[in-house]
Amino acid sequence: MRLRALADALDARLATVWPAETKFERRCFELLRSAYVKARYSRHYRVTADELTWLLDRVGILQALVGEVCAARIEALRQASA
């Protein structure tokens, strides 16, 4: 959650990638957040097809948005140094 908060503070658009309005959205984000450890070491870690599909869609949105944010920042730095 700390990295998410730091990223959201850099660009407000990033906060829209992981909505937390419904129980399903909050559960999916928690599944993603805990997957790094739990998916490898816990037999009880489970992800449904619907959850995985939603996560995949959100990761695609995140990838595109991070590309936009980074390109805009690089362009701003170029203009500032010119």
Q: What would you say this structure looks like, in words?
A:
With 82 residues, the protein is mainly alpha-helical. The protein has one domain: Nucleotidyltransferases  domain 2 (Four Helix Bundle (Hemerythrin (Met), subunit A), Up-down Bundle). Helix content is 74%, strand content 0%. The chain is elongated. The termini are far apart.
Sum up the structure in keywords:
single chain; 82 residues; mainly alpha; Four Helix Bundle (Hemerythrin (Met), subunit A)
Describe the structure concisely for a colleague.
By secondary structure, the protein is mainly alpha-helical. The chain has 3 helices and no strands.
Q: What is the CATH architecture annotation?
A: Up-down Bundle
Low-pLDDT runs of 5+ residues are: none
Cα shape: elongated
The name CATH uses for the topology is: Four Helix Bundle (Hemerythrin (Met), subunit A)
Overall mean confidence score, pLDDT: 93
- Helical amount among residues, as a percent range? over 70%
Supply the CATH class. Answer: Mainly Alpha
Strands, total number: 0
Number of domains: 1
Question: Which range does the strand content fall in?
Answer: under 5%
- Any idea what the CATH superfamily is called? Nucleotidyltransferases  domain 2
